[in-house]
Amino acid sequence: MIYQSDSLTVTRLEGDIAELNFDLNGESVNKFNQATVNDLTAALDALETESGIKGLLVTSGKGVFIVGADITEFTELFKSTADEIKPVFVPNNTNLNRIGKLPYPSAVAINGYAMGGGLEACLACDFRVMSTAAKVGLPETKLGIIPGWGGTVRLPRLIGVDEAVMWMATGAEKRADEALKAGAVDAIAEPDQLRAVTLATLQQAVDGKLEYSERRARKHGPLPLNDTEAMMSFFTIRSMVAQQAGKNFPAPLKVVDVIEKARSMSLEEALQVEADGFAEVATTPVAQALVGIFLNDQFLSKKAKGWEKKADKAIERAAVLGAGIMGGGIAYQSALRGTPIKMKDINQDGLDLGLNEANKLLSKRVSRGRMTPQKMGEVLNSIDPTLDYNGFEDVDIVVEAVVENPKVKHAVLAETEKQIDKDAVLASNTSTISITYLAEALERPENFCGMHFFNPVHAMPLVEVIRGEKTSDTAVARTVAYANKMGKKAVVVRDCPGFLVNRVLFPYFAGFTGLVKDGADFQQLDKVMERWGWPMGPAYLSDVIGIDTGVHCVEVMADGFPDRMTPQYKTATDIMFENDRLGQKNGKGFYEYVTDKRGKPKKVVSEETYALLEPHVEARKDFDKDEIVPRMMLPMAIELARCLEEGIVETPAEADLALLYGVGFPPFRGGVFRWMDTVGMAYIVEQSEKYAYLGKAYEVTERMREMLSNSETYY
């Protein structure tokens, strides 16, 4: 043994080969935390004093290579200044440079995942052999930062500027065949042959049959581009990255800037440029927001796995009541992820619609090469359409997804309960109706909960699992376990009108209709909020959700929270509804919809909308975005704070992710609570007082005032 620590070992193998093996004690994966960086420094010290070594084999003792840096160590770091951040990355850059300058060749066996700093460590080695089951990538831009351990320097010198920028700007994971084709790895091998192939590659280099000095020179020198080639290449790729990333995500463009600035430099000089670029983006609110989302997501996954461990029984067979688009989407997602499902409807047309939805989604996967036709057939065969309850006695969970009508749901739920095992879970995919109220129709309310999917089911990650007054922990645990198995992000919330997402979304819509009443152009409101970061503005979003659905939700909210959610005027949404403008579902709402060449609805402006609104709104006038944004966002933010204070949702992290995954809240803002922390509670209270005349929805809670007094934040 040449060196041993809690994170890695260096062992002398037969043939004077040294093996550097990463194996972080107490963790399921390897990561570059501060301890690992320090241990690597000590390991290299030991290696350099060991005589007779002819080659270095780099391996992992885990099922993955290295997943990257320890992001949990970043949160405090990013609160520092740029000058304080830059030195933090020096030790591991020195480590990787030392590996690249060893007086003998090195080869790395890449298994599982080598992401971020993990791939950067691989790039420092002379030869890279990758398992066919592995994936590699530099996903730092997804966190609002850029690679900090030489990724912007070594990768473009290995695979070319254009390809390297695309890897980094998108943060995409790359399969072994893709990495080999690009030139990022030198060979691929089946998992059980990975070590042997890597050792054989290294031995060839040791024996002089594979040359490695030129490889090193390429990574240490300037990019092979003259001034004209560089100008054309960087102009083109900068335009492409700017268009794809948008103005709210600075990291992808910073990758381009760093590579261009360092193109004629040596490795050491280029690493300094990379460090400057990293520090610059790391201190932005965007980086703090995106890193926050990453950590929140890990927290949510841990909570979901905790619930799953409490589940006393696995969900092996499921059923959905009500086919159509929603039922078909639920059936598709369940079957795709390996849980056979019965899909029941009261008529064949409904079943046909549900099956067509599943078939359409599966066919799209096949056409994109993500599924074989044989696998598609297997998934479709695991969806069992039925007009009766035959076989329901064997299912573990039933998701009711019939029309959003309390009386209908009461009847269907009561009938279904009689057809299923006494131990089975019954869940409702209601978007607004109280779970406690629906449970009144049941003999076993402890086995009943809400399981609210968002439309379209296959695309929206969120599932709200709603606990009614009598819902048991067992029912919640099994339902969360089922959501996990379906590949969804489950947030457990308490029962209340609208639950969490709809309860806070409709005050946002109230801000919108209030502005329209006061003379704002709905198109301007859409543009301002889209520029602020929402994927679609409030008028467009209303059309997509469905105007009739919106009207129904407002009625539910008004009943539940009459002091702040009862409209005091005829809203723009009411006017659309009264004139049978229901949104995309019937081709006309705030906008009108025509089918484009790809068969998708395209919105066009309708003068009829303005004519219908005119008698009920003030004369049209322009509003500044500094008024539009707080009037739209304050009611949502304050209502979300109420939900947290009332225990509807347990943590700011879960609340922020629910809006991110459920309605597309701008990720670069990190979530509503993260946004409030960023702008400051003083701003929130000041704007609340400014717009107090608009009603109680704009009135901050006493707890929020306490937070201001005590200089507290949500994170």
UniProtKB/TrEMBL annotation:
It catalyses: a (3S)-3-hydroxyacyl-CoA + NAD(+) = a 3-oxoacyl-CoA + NADH + H(+). It comes from the Bacteria. It comes from Parahalioglobus pacificus. In the N-terminal section; belongs to the enoyl-CoA hydratase/isomerase family. In the central section; belongs to the 3-hydroxyacyl-CoA dehydrogenase family. InterPro entries: 3-OHacyl-CoA_DH_CS, 3-OHacyl-CoA_DH_NAD-bd, 3HC_DH_C, 6-PGluconate_DH-like_C_sf, ClpP/crotonase-like_dom_sf, Enoyl-CoA_hydra/iso, FA_oxidation_alpha_subunit, FadB. This is enoyl-CoA hydratase. The lineage of its organism: Bacteria, Pseudomonadati, Pseudomonadota, Gammaproteobacteria, Cellvibrionales. It is an enzyme of class 4 (lyase). Keywords: Fatty acid metabolism, Isomerase, Lipid degradation, Lipid metabolism, Lyase, Multifunctional enzyme, NAD, Oxidoreductase.
